[in-house]
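Most newcomers find our protein records easier to grasp once they have seen one. To make this concrete, we reproduce a full record directly below:

…
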Amino acid sequence: MSSKNKKPLNRRQKRMRMKRIRRTIIALVIIVAALVVVLFLQFRFGTGDDNDKAEDSLSVAEDSLSVEEETEGLPEIEGSGSLELSSVYTSSILNPDCGGEYAEEIASLEVTNSSDSYLISATLIATMSDGTEVNFAVYDLPAGATAEIFDTENQTLDSSVTCTSLVCTSEEYIDEDVLLSDSIEMTVSGSDAIITNTGDSALTSLTVVYHCDMAGQYFGGTSYTITIDSLTAGGSYTLSDSTLMGEVAVVRIYQ
């Protein structure tokens, strides 16, 4: 009898496996909660219309499990040599990529910049199995970083649709020290980013670009900017944005 040695999982495969495990746990929690509702209503009201409503709620919970695609069947991102797709799903959120407007069941992607360069911007078009075209954009994505990006037009989708193709229509990268590390030091304190001028002279007209960091990845393809008029030698500026759902993640500083 022969046996084959299994290849060790790479980082991306491990991350995908952990995401599937987390999603399975969330799905089980939803079903258990729905079953509790069904059993309570059966005990409280018996059979009849209320029981039918309870069963409907369980059906809705089960339907929500089909929202996300299996990662093994994802399309490649055509037209891009550096962006990688790791998940396609639908979300009901305040969409950061559509001016913060509330959206229900919109297409969402999880993309990673797998290059060694800083991504200035990229635009993508996804075609869904029902023929719907969905537009996405991601800005200021450092090398190796991952972002959850959302439909820029908030189109509600049926949860049964899948993504059949994904095309990158434009992308721009740069190779430079995007954080001006020769003269600036960056530290994080809680949800704040502290920017310190470590040079011998004042820095003027600094543009600081940042993202909303949610558990180690960026929430939305949208990036945000502030301007620091002057930062004296040895001086610090604390960047805090209470409008973000997550923490501030500074990704670029330039003059």
Remarks:
- Residues 1-17, 53-71 have pLDDT under 50 and may be disordered.
- The first helix runs from residue 11 to 45.
- The CA atoms of residues 15 and 86 lie 9 Å apart.
